[in-house]
Amino acid sequence: MPSHAWGGGVGGSDDVGQAERVHELIQALLGKAGAGFEDVVTVTVYLLRVEDRAAVNTVRRRFFGESRPASTLVEVSAFVVPGAFLEIDVVARQPQR
User: Within 10 Å of residue 85's Cβ, how many Cβ atoms?
Assistant: First the structure.
């Protein structure tokens, strides 16, 4: 679900601010399903500028902790949402708790 559907806009005005906002939204969605970042099995990160990878990965490590799901990074030329620097797609398993 795009962040604007949550009424949050794209978040900050830079890659780090937006990465934090997107991860917060992912965390909320996972929580609604009774899951957490440890249940994520794949991540696809779409970046407007591939050179932003290091900054986005710093944010990602804070949220994912020790979890290391399969990951793909794709550089794109534009996003539908004006002002967006990144988009993150995750697939998670339903935890058996």
Answer: 23
